[in-house]
Amino acid sequence: MTTHRAHCLILPYPSQGHINPMLQFSKRLQSKGVKITIATTKSFLKTMQELTTSVSIEAISDGYDDGGRDQAGSFVAYITRFKEVGSDTLAQLIKKLANSGCPVNCIVYDPFLPWAVEVAKDFGLVSAAFFTQNCAVDNIYYHVHKGVLKLPPTQDDEEILIPGFSCPIESSDVPSFVISPEAARILDMLVNQFSNLDKVDWVLINSFYELEKEVIDWMSKIYPIKTIGPTIPSMYLDNRLPDDKEYGLSVFKPMTNECLNWLNHQLISSVVYVSFGSLAKVEVEQMEELAWGLKNSNKNFLWVVRSTEESKLPKNFLEELKLVSENKGLVVSWCPQLQVLEHKSTGCFLTHCGWNSTLEAISLGVPMLTMPQWTDQPTNAKLVKDVWEMGVRAKQDEKGIVRREVIEECIKLVMEEEKGKMIKENAQKWKELARKAVDEGGSSDKNIEEFVSKLVTISS
Ligand code: UDX
């Protein structure tokens, strides 16, 4: 028997930073009665074994079933083949689900995979693009797409005015792919997100209205924008999803007890938590400056150094400096970040400003010290410092390295000085607004309600 229940097929780009926000969004849709199927690649599915979720997951192919992105060699080669093979296998999946008793009526896709819109059209389904990054970053790529924003600017410190952006920015604030000539093909792909966006029914953004009012209002005149974030588990925000388990996917293993036990023995708001996310490769020289900056700040710190980065740490760093015996520092290869950010001992987040990390810090009210590395991170860092005023940005020298004195000074600024008080107050304000956005009747909750009610109308 066929039921007339709304059924969304969710198509994330297969990486942790993209699938997690879409998974959290899926849980919210599901709590409002929508059936969810997540489609991901065979190779990525293998890394998802520990995912604890009630949503169903189906495999499609990216053409690299054994090794995925790594097997492809380059990102561009991967994306190209994914389009060819992915379109067919996604279509096969839709046909299979059509016979399951509850056919798909909407595709929510990651615009890194814009071909999904054509598949949706072929089957007469509605479509929604889900941008995992914030609206300000999307707006910059939109302006590159339109040819309005031409970079790099002639002078390094020239101010750039972007319609919809609440303040002028400099070339050091735009996403790295926009200004790096070597990244031209990646930029093409990012800009291509907008190539068929006029054909979609909704544009969902992983942010919340109060955080980016001006740019959201501006972009809403062009696209049917709906903000639906923050997409972190409900248990850290409104706590309305009763069976909301911990986070979604981690391709790394968290060392839950070690970190949390250590934090339990620290004073309130005394710890600097340091992490550069799942991808960034920090230069050896930068790693050394970071190590000394942390040591010299005299604050206790919890530092995530992924195992692939470990060899870059100064030799015997923790042991030689007696950081272990005095309990002043803990280095781990991965941690349960949300629990760490929520912990009362955490006073400052030294972050690369990946959008997930930034949104998590906003949602949990943790002041930030930003050290952006690449991609959207410089823009996020600009917003944290100058628009949301809940952090500082550590300045690089002419070699692109943030020196130890700068790191030490910035940590003290956030954790000790008058400016730090203002930052803490703002962090609390944003935390409250983030919770309100997803709570009943909040801006994101209303948008999700509206999205669901349209889906229900279509499916009945
Ligand atoms: C990538 C890009 O680098 C980033 O710029 C873009 O905005 C999203 O995609 P990544 O570098 O992994 O992401 O950073 P981020 O977006 O911050 O995501 C990292 C995720 O890993 C966060 O959800 C964080 O909670 C989690 N994490 C990180 C852990 O769970 N434990 C850790 O020890 C470190």
Please, could you describe this protein's structure?
- Keywords: Glycosyltransferase, Transferase.
- This is Glycosyltransferase.
- Belongs to the UDP-glycosyltransferase family.
- With 460 residues, the protein is of the alpha/beta class.
- The chain contains 18 helices and 13 strands.
- The strands form 2 sheets. The protein has a 7-stranded parallel beta sheet with strand order 3-2-1-4-5-6-7. Strands 10-9-8-11-12-13 form a 6-stranded parallel beta sheet, sandwiched between helices.
- β6, α9 (213-220) and β7 (225-227) form a beta-alpha-beta unit.
- The chain is globular, with a radius of gyration of 22 Å.
- It starts with 6 loop residues before the first strand and ends with a helix.
- The mean pLDDT is 92.
- The structure holds uridine-5'-diphosphate-xylopyranose.
- Residues 17, 20, 133, 250, 275, 277-280, 304, 334-335, 337-338, 354-357, 360, 375-377 line the site of uridine-5'-diphosphate-xylopyranose.
List keywords for this structure.
460 residues, alpha/beta, six-stranded parallel beta sheet, 18 helices, 13 strands, 13% strand, globular, binds uridine-5'-diphosphate-xylopyranose, UDP_glycos_trans_CS, transferase, quercetin 7-O-glucosyltransferase activity, Glycosyltransferase
Write the layout of secondary structure elements.
Blueprint: E1 7-11, H1 16-31, E2 35-41, H2 42-46, E3 56-60, H3 68-72, H4 75-98, E4 106-109, H5 116-122, E5 126-131, H6 135-145, H7 176-179, H8 184-191, E6 202-205, H9 213-220, E7 225-227, H10 256-264, E8 271-275, H11 284-297, E9 300-304, H12 317-320, E10 329-332, H13 337-342, E11 346-351, H14 355-364, E12 368-370, H15 377-387, E13 391-393, H16 404-415, H17 418-438, H18 443-459
Parallel strand pairs: 1-2, 1-4, 2-3, 4-5, 5-6, 6-7, 8-9, 8-11, 9-10, 11-12, 12-13
Helix pairs in contact: 11-16, 14-17, 16-17
Bound molecules: uridine-5'-diphosphate-xylopyranose.
Uridine-5'-diphosphate-xylopyranose is lined by residues 17, 20, 133, 250, 275, 277-280, 304, 334-335, 337-338, 354-357, 360, 375-377.
